[in-house]
Amino acid sequence: MFKTMDRKLSLICIAIATCYLFLSYRLPEYPYAIMDADVIPKGLGFLLVILAFLLFLQNKQETEQEREKRNVDPKEIRMLLVVLIIIIIYIFLLEIIGFVINTFLFLLVLIRLLGYKKWLSNTLVSIILPIVIYFAFNYLLKIYLPQGILPF
After folding, report:
1. How big is the CA angle at 133 (ends 127 and 136), to the nearest 5 degrees?
2. At residue 70, what are phi and psi to the nearest 5 degrees?
C-alpha cells in the first residue's frame, strides 16, 4: 500500500488538508457578507484533499532515475533553511517595523541571497514594489497594512 513515495506524500497531504479544513471551519461567519471569509480556505482545503487522493490512486512505479532525483544537495537544504528563517523573521517583524520597510529589507536580502547581483535593479524593485502594494491596499482597497514606524 505504501510502496511508492507518492502514496506516502499523499497521505501526509491528506492529513495536512484535514487539519487545514478543520481550522477553516472554525473561522467566524459574517451575517452581511455575500461571500464569507471562509470560502477560499475551504475551497483550497477540499482541492488539496482531492488532489492528494488522486495522487494516492495513481498507480505509477518509481524508476531508479526518479529515486536519484530525490537526493538533494546539502547546500540546497541549507539555502532552504536560510530562506525559511528569513521568512519567519519577516513575519515576526512585520507589525513592529511595518510593511514597507520590512518588505524592502526582506526583498533586498532575499534577492541578493538567491544570487542576483545587480544592486541598482534589486534596490529599485525592493523599494518600488512594497510602496505600490502598500498604497494600493491602504488607499484603493481600504485594507490597512501595518505602518510600523512610518508616519503614513
Report:
1. 135
2. -75, -20
The amino acid occupying position 101 is I
pTM greater than 0.90 (yes/no): no
CB 4 within 8 A of CB 66: no
Q: Which residues of 61-98 are buried (b: 16+ CB within 10 A; e: fewer)?
A: eeeeeeeeeeeeeeeeeeeeeeeeeeeeebeebbeebb
Q: Are 132 and 100 in contact (CB under 8 A)?
A: no
- Of 15, 22, 24, 25, the closest CA to residue 52 belongs to 15
- Is residue 80 a contact partner of residue 127, using CB atoms and an 8 Å limit? no
Contact call for residues 149 and 143 (beta carbons, < 8 A): no
> What element of type H or E holds 65?
helix 64-69
Cell of 128: 518600488
Residue 52 CB partners (closer than 8 Å, separation 6+): 10, 11, 13, 14, 17
Give CA–CA dist 40/45, Å, rounded: 8
Chain segment 10-29, per-residue pLDDT in tens = 999 999 999 999 999 998 88
